[in-house]
Amino acid sequence: MNGTVLAVLMALQATVVTSFDAAPESTSVVAQTTSDQSEEPVITEIRQFRFEFANCERTRNPESPYRCNFLVENIGRDSVPISINGDVAPQRTSYIVDRQGRRINATMIDVAGDRQSFYGTAQAPPGVPMRVSLFLETVPVEEVSYIELYCTAPRDPGQQFSATFSDLEYEVD
């Protein structure tokens, strides 16, 4: 596919099929789930949320030249708020790890259009996927191998949890 890097994901938990279009301002896709796979895309479900990794890509923004995109869906019965952390504190920041083991913290997060440095928050109605983007100030040296989205659900007794993706494998066409 003209040198496009494709990703086959192996997450920690369940699998389902959803779709995601690359954001229009991207210049090149670095990683994405393959569209011609016979298997369903791998996603992570935790608490009452389904997190699907869509892709990682370079952007035209010099302050945040790299981002990873996700769909997040409330699979519960009631509408609830969810916050996903950007650059809050080292132990509570969403981040990626590249194949060289470098941890790269998020500098900004966009949750359904709420783009913030510290965290993005949105009301999550049941069954409605929301676009989430994790922005990074550094482009990974090699492919992304692990992603952690640090989340807070204010109405949940446990409140804080992480959605993680690991064992990301890449095929170059």
Structural notes for this entry:
With 173 residues, this protein is an all-beta fold. It is 0% helix and 53% strand. It contains no helices and 13 strands. It has strands at 5-11, 28-32, 43-46, 49-58, 66-74, 80-85, 95-98, 103-111, 114-116, 119-124, 130-136, 144-152, 160-172. Strands 1, 2, 3, 4, 5, 6, 7, 8, 9, 10, 11, 12 and 13 form a 13-stranded antiparallel sheet that branches. The relative contact order is 0.25.
**What class do helices, strands and sheet pairing give?**
mainly beta
Which oligomerization state do the chains in this entry correspond to? Answer: single chain
Low-confidence stretches: 1-39
How many helices in DSSP terms? 0
Portion of residues in beta strands equals: over 45%
DSSP strand tally: 13
What characteristic shape results from the CA principal axes?
globular
Order of helices and strands: EEEEEEEEEEEEE
Instruction: From the alpha carbons, calculate the radius of gyration and give it in angstroms.
Output: 15 Å
Largest sheet: 13 strands, antiparallel
Question: Would you tell me the overall average pLDDT?
Answer: 74
Binned, the helix content reads: under 10%
Instruction: Report how far apart the termini are.
Output: 5 Å
Q: Quick gist of this model?
A:
With 173 residues, the chain is mainly β. The chain contains no helices and 13 strands.
Record the SSE blueprint.
Blueprint: E1 5-11, E2 28-32, E3 43-46, E4 49-58, E5 66-74, E6 80-85, E7 95-98, E8 103-111, E9 114-116, E10 119-124, E11 130-136, E12 144-152, E13 160-172
Antiparallel strand pairs: 1-13, 2-4, 3-4, 4-5, 5-11, 6-10, 6-12, 7-8, 7-12, 8-9, 8-11, 12-13
